[in-house]
UniProtKB/TrEMBL annotation:
It holds the Pfam family BPD_transp_1. It comes from Paenibacillus allorhizoplanae. Residues 90-305 form the ABC transmembrane type-1 domain. The gene is yteP_55. The chain crosses the membrane at residues 29-48, 94-115, 136-157, 177-203, 224-244, 284-304. The lineage of its organism: Bacteria, Bacillati, Bacillota, Bacilli, Bacillales. PANTHER family: POLYGALACTURONAN_RHAMNOGALACTURONAN TRANSPORT SYSTEM PERMEASE PROTEIN YTEP, PROTEIN LPLB. Belongs to the binding-protein-dependent transport system permease family. This is Multiple-sugar transport system permease YteP. The keyword Membrane applies. It comes from the Bacteria. InterPro entries: MetI-like, MetI-like_sf. Keywords: Membrane, Transmembrane, Transmembrane helix, Transport.
Length: 318
């Protein structure tokens, strides 16, 4: 029979375990020092502001503060769902999020697989640089570029269409085009940055696997589907789960630079509505309730998707 640990032995075991932890921390103290700015950032700008979410249940008054404001319970949440345009705004946010996952998420994976097959290193580096450079542009600059490209009078797109006898189209002035513009501009700006992550994951694959497959006569395409993709699958899963967690958080700047009264019906999302109602109209409690609703939905989505991911692939965030 296995011997049971006596209370005194348990105490010694805990003491030894704590000593090992402190010894490990002393040995690797530079890592903890490097991580301090990130920890402080999240504490100051992510976790401490969470306590301010209490104003979602109040009629917040900036002069009375949180302690002096009146409590109203779930009144702002009821008002949120009773608002006639909120369902349309929620629909826009969900549809744009789905389009972004279906079209924007796979493109960095495909780009990384294609770039990885390039054998001329100089050309490979040039392509990598050209692809990820737009990531460093602000959305204001990207918006200006897109407006210029799609301009009905001077834009290159309408110039090309005119060669085929098509009348100029004011793309940013029609509801039917705004979602396509939002997704395609995001793909152009950010797909290169995601490509770098997947290229880094591909670089970590053991070269012996490719050598063994070549001996067995596997083609390059076969190697991609049998070695490369399965090897980077954990990275794909983690990034996919993170994107699901931000499903309703499409980005304020990304949408706001393209919005105007002509495309507002299909283009406005929760983030832009919160800006308009919260900062412009100063409805702080109401927009905090909307933000809290969005955060809860994101948390539920990431928990559910993580559970399914663990069951199907064995990989997850936690």
């Amino acid at each position: 029979m296995a011997s049971k640990i006596q209370p005194s032995d348990q105490t010694m075991y805990n003491f030894s375990s704590q000593s090992q932890k402190w010894a490990f921390m002393r040995k690797h103290w530079p890592i903890y020092v490097i991580s301090l700015p990130g920890i402080i950032y999240f504490l100051l700008f992510k976790y401490i502001p969470l306590f301010g979410s209490v104003i979602a249940f109040q009629n917040y008054n900036i002069f009375k503060g949180i302690k002096g404001s009146d409590w109203v319970g779930f009144e702002h949440f009821q008002r949120m769902f009773a608002y006639t345009d909120f369902l349309q705004i929620l629909k826009n946010t969900i549809l744009i999020g789905i389009y972004d996952m279906c079209f924007a998420f796979p493109i960095p994976i495909v780009l990384a697989l294609l770039i990885n097959e390039v054998r001329i290193m100089a050309y490979k580096r040039i392509v990598q640089t050209v692809v990820y450079m737009p990531h460093f542009l602000s959305w204001v600059i990207v918006g200006g570029i897109v407006v210029g490209v799609l301009s009905p009078s001077t834009g290159i797109v309408n110039h090309l269409l005119s060669l085929f006898g098509v009348e100029p189209i004011y793309f940013l002035g029609e509801n039917s085009y705004i979602r396509t513009i939002l997704i395609s501009s995001g793909v152009w700006k950010d797909s290169g940055w995601g490509t770098i992550i997947y290229l880094a994951a591909i670089a970590g694959i053991n070269p012996d696997l490719y050598e063994a497959s070549q001996i067995d006569g596997a083609s390059r395409i076969r190697q991609v589907f049998s070695i490369t993709i399965p090897s980077i699958l954990p990275t794909i899963v983690i990034l996919f789960l993170l994107q699901i967690g931000n499903f309703l958080d499409f980005g304020f700047e990304r949408v706001f630079v393209f919005l105007n009264p002509l495309n507002n019906e299909n283009g406005e999302i929760i983030d832009t509505f919160v800006y308009r109602a919260g900062l412009v109209d100063r409805q702080y409690s109401y927009t905090t309730a909307i933000g809290l609703f969005k955060s809860v939905v994101g948390l539920l989505l990431i928990m559910i998707s993580n559970m399914f991911s663990k069951k199907m692939t064995g990989e997850g965030l936690y």
